[in-house]
Write a structure and sequence with these properties.
The protein is 76% helix and 2% strand. The N and C termini lie far apart (43 Å). The chain has 17 helices and 2 strands.
Length: 407
């Protein structure tokens, strides 16, 4: 008989912070993790998930109360929006569309790999899409949605496999991103245009670094002001999402965190043009970094690793090949087409994150990198906008094309 223990809200929040401390402590003592910039939430989260998996094997289940998880994610994307002033958007706007084209090309390749290997292994070709962009570029939400479609239209039950594949991708995306980008940086002798170390905020007041080690000059007042703006973006996104659902405007239906990001873009550019109020960028940096770290810790401590163990061997083979293909694609194609510079290397690490896992994983990869190798504001603008907004639309179109061909 399985015994379920529900962990309270406060205790769950404490465990999320503990996950980050564990990850930091392990990384401090394991040189390989530091060298290849394995993100702290991945390290700490996997250790906690491993403990929970052991307990599960003894029929003991822990259920965490993590009602703040979604709000923290939306706060982070709001901070990305607040960092995207029109000057920065004009400077890096073309890179957004270039990166979108590269990511779209990879989705086509990702599904071709999945379908080809599934067919070679004697599986239903649709399983190749489950182990392709449905769960890897799409994540858990897209996987669940398509599993329902496959069940209704094709009579195939794929929900458990979709969730397991998405979990596998989330973990592997966080593991390979740092090593791929670090290898590019070391091999090509790349450096951040803003330098490594030092006080970036002093020399560049408008820079948002998402560096956990950066020294920030903030006050209680500036933190409260920015916290108010971030929560305003979150509340606005929820309200707007409800309005879109109520009016049933299909083309405007997107994840709420996308609305939060664009609310942030609108607010920061209104304040810049009006010049009536200046948003404290260092406070945005602090709250954005904390929100991302806590959200990822919560997501990873809730991983059900036993779902990965239950994967059928053929599906696991497809996912391992997908991991290797993305690492090679990011290393040789993403990096070169994005300019073969420091920003391109950071974006290659980010591509590993959302090409296998999700946009927050991509940002986690980049955050681990810039904490050691220097800021890359262009990467933090381009990757989240493509990963949070455009890629889901492109993914849906490409998947429909594959289904038409397979069918």
């Amino acid at each position: 008989m399985n015994t379920v223990y529900t962990v309270g809200e406060l205790e769950s929040f404490l465990v999320a912070i503990l996950v980050l401390f564990i990850g930091h402590s392990v990384n401090r003592h394991v040189a390989a993790f530091r060298k290849y910039n394995i993100p702290e939430p991945i390290v700490g989260g996997l250790l906690v998930a491993a403990v929970i998996t052991v307990l599960h094997s003894y029929n003991i289940s822990l259920e965490f109360s993590l009602s703040m998880q979604n709000t923290l994610m939306m706060m982070f994307f709001s901070s990305v929006g607040l960092a995207a002033s029109y000057k920065l958007l004009m400077k890096g706007g073309t890179k957004v569309f270039l990166f979108l084209a590269i990511a779209s090309l990879y989705i086509i390749i990702q599904n071709a790999v999945g379908v080809s290997i599934a067919t070679a292994l004697g599986l239903e070709p649709l399983m190749g899409l489950i182990a392709g962009s449905i769960t890897l570029s799409g994540g858990h939400g897209t996987g669940a949605a398509w599993a329902q479609t496959f069940s209704e239209q094709y009579g195939i039950n794929t929900l458990e496999l979709a969730m397991a594949a998405a979990t596998f991708g989330l973990v592997m995306g966080g593991i390979i991103g740092g090593p791929v980008a670090q290898r590019l940086i070391n091999k090509n002798g790349l450096v951040s245009a803003y330098g490594v170390g030092g006080n970036h905020h002093k020399d560049h007041p408008d820079l948002v670094t998402y560096d956990q080690l950066e020294e920030d000059r903030v006050t209680a007042k500036s933190i409260l002001e920015v916290l108010f703006i971030l929560l305003l973006c979150v509340a606005g996104a929820k309200w707007f999402g409800s309005l879109v659902d109520y009016l049933d405007i299909g083309w405007l239906k997107m994840p709420e965190f996308v609305y939060a990001l664009f609310f942030g873009v609108v607010i920061t550019n209104i304040t810049e043009v009006s010049r009536g109020f200046k948003i404290n960028r260092e406070s945005v940096d602090v709250l954005g970094t904390v929100s991302l770290a806590l959200f990822l810790a919560m997501a990873l401590m809730n991983l059900k690793l036993w779902e990965i163990f239950d994967l059928a061997v053929p599906l696991l083979i497809i996912l391992l090949v997908q991991t290797a293909v993305l690492a090679l694609f990011a290393y040789w194609i993403t990096f070169k087409l994005m300019g073969a510079n420091y920003d391109a290397a950071v974006m290659a690490g980010g591509h590993c994150g959302f090409g296998l896992g999700a946009t927050p994983t991509a940002v986690m990869n980049m955050g681990a990198l810039v904490s050691r190798t220097g800021p890359s504001p262009q990467a933090f603008m381009v990757v989240p906008i493509v990963g949070a907004f455009f890629i889901d639309i492109v993914n849906a179109i490409i998947l429909q094309g594959y289904l038409s061909f397979i069918g």
